[in-house]
Design goal:
ATP-binding, UDP-N-acetylmuramoylalanine--D-glutamate ligase, 448 residues, UDP-N-acetylmuramoylalanine-D-glutamate ligase activity, alpha/beta, 3 domains, nine-stranded mixed beta sheet, Rossmann fold, UDP-N-acetylmuramoyl-L-alanine:D-glutamate ligase, single chain, Mur-like_cat_sf, Mur_ligase_C_dom_sf, six-stranded mixed beta sheet
Length: 448
């Protein structure tokens, strides 16, 4: 950890406790700041005792504006919008408002690789981490996917590298954050209930590049029109990736080959991770890891074995020639369409869940590879109707995921893919999509 005296005897307000707030408060306290935590929700007694033990002040149940008197800085929980009165008053008083990822950069002796985008952040971050680990680059993983960024930054050493997943919420709260390699995967309409406009959302994403210079790299999706329209603001070396264009200066798909510059890295058929959308995630990871000095051998070894992030097109196992995939994170039609696009084999699709009132007509053009549909949950009748519309002959309705796995296996043949990609939220039968995915995994392993 770098030795910094910036915060000694300074009054710092931590707005919103949670995991990141607790980590930031303890770290700043150790750096000599006078820290006060404020949260509208009372934390558990154990957390209160931890704060008291550290000597950290706290105010719960409200955010009194008096906390801003003589405040040096506010560190806010990323999920708290800037429009709340407390933050508006802080900005009016010109008090800096940051998120804890800024602290990570200030303290870290290691370079940082930052990954953002509307979709694919977790998969790409994990893949980059795994490749760099295989290449013996001593990576650490941080951000939304792992340990709180400032905790990792405080512990990182010079010969390591921090691979960080970053949201637009976090990126709105940076001042000097400067990744050695910044990765922007894509930009879709997202979180517009948090951001005041699409323009603000795009600006937040491009904050990732705002402090880079010509010694740094920007790995960007050349197929994304919003990204392409904003490249003029990037000062670092742009390294593109593309699924549709052969870009000899970056990573691209040529026929069925994944390339970096003019080097063939691997055939897409040999990559274990499935889903057409994952081609872009893999290309971004290849470009990033090659720029950081990973060998082609390390990249290939990971791509041939990487099963994906849990519940996101996760390869589970193969039983008697049937490959099982857990895509429980697919809580909408678009996600299930993306999952199905990755398979040439016959698919037995397990789908269903919470009925939000929509139909499934938009799923029809993606069902050409589906030979059997097994439905469950509130939306089962609608999904069955959709399957009949496209001529799927075998349709089975069951009560739950457990019975769906058993039915799918019974109806399958060697060479089939059995895919849980529900196209629906899980709340009719489960608390979370993770719980649904875990049920699927457990039932699959019971088949053995």
């Amino acid at each position: 950890m770098k030795t910094i005296k910036t915060y000694e005897n300074q009054n710092v307000v931590i707005l919103g406790l949670a995991k990141s707030g607790l980590a930031a408060s303890k770290l700043l306290h150790r750096l000599g700041a006078n820290v006060t935590v404020t949260d509208r929700t009372e934390p558990e007694e154990e957390v209160k005792r931890e704060l008291e033990k550290e000597g950290i002040s706290s105010v719960f149940g409200e955010h009194p504006l008096s906390l801003l008197d003589n405040a040096y800085m506010v560190v806010k929980n990323p999920g708290i919008p800037y429009r709340i009165p407390f933050l508006q008053e802080a900005l009016k008083r010109e008090i800096p408002v940051i998120t804890e990822v800024e602290l990570s950069y200030e303290l870290s002796e290691a370079p940082i690789i930052g990954i953002t985008g509307s979709n694919g952040k977790t998969t790409t971050t994990t893949l980059i981490y795994e490749i760099l680990a295989a290449a013996q680059k001593e990576p650490l993983i941080a951000g939304n996917i792992g340990t709180v960024s400032c905790e990792v930054g405080a512990k990182a050493e010079k010969d390591q590298v921090i691979v960080t997943e970053l949201s637009s919420f976090q990126l709105m709260g940076i001042r000097e954050y400067k990744p050695k390699i910044a990765v922007l995967l894509n930009i879709f309409d997202a979180h517009l209930d948090y951001h005041s406009s699409k323009e603000e959302y795009v600006e937040a994403k491009f904050n990732l590049f705002s402090h880079q210079d010509e010694e740094d790299y920007a790995v960007i999706n050349a197929d994304d029109p919003v990204i392409s329209a904003n490249l003029g603001s990037i000062k670092s070396k742009v390294v593109p990736f593309s699924r549709h264009k052969e870009l000899k200066e970056g990573a691209y798909l040529s026929g069925n080959k994944l390339m970096f510059q003019e080097e063939e890295i691997i055939s897409w058929d040999d990559v274990l991770l499935k889903g057409e959308h994952n081609i872009e995630n893999v290309l971004a990871a290849i470009a990033t890891c090659k720029l950081y000095g990973a060998s082609t051998e390390a990249i290939v070894s990971v791509l041939k074995t990487f099963t994906g992030v849990k519940h996101r097109m996760q390869y589970v196992t193969n039983i008697h020639g049937r490959a099982f995939y857990n895509d429980s994170k697919a809580t909408n039609i678009l996600a299930t369409k993306a999952a199905l696009s990755g398979f040439k084999e016959n698919v037995i699709l397990l789908a269903g869940g919470l009925d939000r009132g929509n139909g499934f007509e938009d799923l029809e053009d993606a069902l050409s590879c589906v030979k059997t549909l097994v439905t469950f949950g509130e939306t089962a009748p609608k999904l069955e109707e959709t399957a009949k519309n496209v001529g799927i002959q075998t349709i089975k309705c069951v009560d739950n995921v457990e019975k769906a796995v058993a039915a799918a296996y019974k109806l399958s043949e060697e060479g089939d893919v059995i895919l849980l990609s529900p196209a629906c939220a899980s709340w009719d039968q489960f608390k979370t999509f993770e719980e649904r995915g875990d049920m699927f995994i457990n039932c699959v392993h019971k088949l053995k």
